[in-house]
Amino acid sequence: MYVAERLVFVELHKTGGTHIGKWLAALAPGKQVGKHNRVPMALRDRFILGSVRNPWDWYVSLWGYGCDRKGAVYHTVTRGLDVGYLLRQLSDEMGVSGYPIAAMLRQAVADVARPAAAWRSVYRDANDAGAFREWLHMMMEVERRFDVAEGFGFSPISNWAGILSYRYLKLFTTLDNRLYTDSTLGTPEGARTALRATWLVRGIIRTEHLEEDLLDALSRAGYAPTEAQREAVRAGRNAKTNTSGRRSSAYYYDDRTIALVGQRESLIIAEHGYAPPVPAEGA
User: Is residue 50 part of a domain?
Assistant: First the structure.
């Protein structure tokens, strides 16, 4: 989370946040406070800025990052039980001050049963479309919802949606603890209703239109980049940082996996009008 005088930027994972943060530091001076954390109550009256990305592309990026042996998801799914994580980090990731011992034990049981070797095998090669599809099916299986930890399995949304929608609702709404206790989130219709009632963000930067969306948000937040600064932002379009080396998203998908993401991330797809890739011929 980046905090400036008039603006707070909440970074959804793998959506160009590092690149956005560098420009915010130059154009809206502030400070970095954590990274993928919720906006505290004391800051919710500022212009809240979020970021989002085409879900089909997002999952390829998340997997590709793991193929480089990087990222919280990779390190979580490929390990066994980590008591230190359960005691010190899980509640912070959920954004709650604490959680019942029963919940801790539920996550611990899932950690012991997690098929870490199978997870490691699907990160074998960033150019292997088959490995990506295996990984995606594992990520989307309801039975595997506790494997990624970070509270995902405890939210009713995990019964029908993927971790991208979970993170989206966690960071960009005022659901807070209701993300884990509100049973209406267990259906797409209930989640859409809750989203509209608790939406916190006033500006969204789409990765696909990063520079223009950033400049528009800065203007609406009360900042006034000079024309030279605007041109510099636009010129940085091809200099984004923290990207995973991989082919275009279409290479990795077939009809089945396209449909899977379309179903599990229907909330974000509908909200932002994202379109699926066209699968490679013969996929």
Answer: no
